[in-house]
Every structure is written in structure tokens, then in C-alpha cells.
Specification:
By secondary structure, the protein is α+β, with helices and mostly antiparallel strands. It has two helices and eight strands. The strands form three sheets. The chain has a three-stranded antiparallel β-sheet, with helices on one face. Strands 6-7-8 form a three-stranded antiparallel β-sheet, with no helix packed on it. Strands 2-3 form a two-stranded antiparallel ribbon. The chain starts with a strand and ends with a helix.
Length: 84
């Protein structure tokens, strides 16, 4: 899972120092361990939703369809899928 760092901390396993705003990848178990040891204010889970930008002007929808559109059009296309 991806998490955003909300407060500076040093990882006891890797000895890496994580800065505020940094996005890091970690396992669910490691995330739980950090929250248990430091509290829930140090990291925040990054919600990964749709549409996902593949590259500028190209988006993937939750049904796997890839479209060429601007962000607003992609959001509308995703909303239309949810309405079905």
C-alpha cells in the first residue's frame, strides 16, 4: 500500500528517515506496526481511485477501459460507469 508521511520519523527496520509529504510503499503489516508504535498521525493511507492517469491526456477507468480525455471528462466517464 502507499502512504503519505505526515510527521518526520526514522524507520526502525531500514533506518531511513521519512520527510513530511513523502509517499512511500509498504506492506499492510508494516503500516499497522508503524501506527501501533508511533500513533495514527505519522502516516496516512493514499486512496487510489479511478480514473487513473496513465499519461498526460490518457486515463484508465475502473472497468479497465482506457480513454483519451482531459481530467474532467475522465471523471465524468467514471461517474457514468458508477451510475450504470
Amino acid at each position: 500500500m502507499k502512504v503519505t508521511v505526515n510527521q518526520v520519523f526514522r524507520d526502525t527496520h531500514t533506518k531511513d528517515v521519512y520527510e513530511v509529504g513523502q509517499i512511500i510503499e509498504m506492506t499492510d503489516d508494516r503500516c499497522d506496526e508503524i501506527v501501533e508504535n508511533l500513533g495514527d498521525g505519522f502516516i496516512q493511507i493514499v486512496e487510489e481511485g479511478f480514473p487513473k492517469m496513465i499519461k498526460r491526456g490518457h486515463y484508465e477507468l475502473s472497468n479497465g477501459e482506457q480513454i483519451e480525455a482531459n481530467k474532467q471528462e475522465a471523471v465524468q466517464a467514471e461517474a457514468a460507469l458508477s451510475a450504470e
